[in-house]
Write a structure and sequence with these properties.
This protein is mostly helical. It has four helices and no strands.
Length: 99
């Protein structure tokens, strides 16, 4: 399936990890990879820092986790997030305090 903004034969965007364009049904891992690619594209285009970039990465991870387990809690999601720097869900919540 080719996204509507791209045509067959168009060069891959710089954030693309290679391989074929995905076709449904997507696995949770494929969706999370696509979300990570979206974060890479936005990071390159917008040059966010700190909380904004962290929020995008957390969203990408959350999408993948919820596809695997729709009942996952914020605590479970943040515990499995590799970018959490060993912090608890409550500590991660404080990253956005006053933002």
């Amino acid at each position: 399936m080719v996204p509507p903004s791209r045509r067959p034969g168009d060069p891959q965007p710089p954030h693309h990890r290679g391989g074929p364009i995905l076709t449904p049904p997507y696995t949770p891992e494929e969706v999370e990879t696509a979300a990570d690619d979206a974060v890479a594209l936005l990071t390159e285009a917008l040059d966010p820092s700190g909380p904004a970039e962290d929020a995008m990465h957390l969203m990408a991870h959350t999408i993948g986790r919820l596809l695997q387990d729709p009942t996952a809690t914020f605590e479970q999601i943040t515990k499995s997030w590799t970018r959490n720097e060993g912090q608890t869900a409550d500590e991660i919540r404080r990253w956005w305090g006053g933002w």
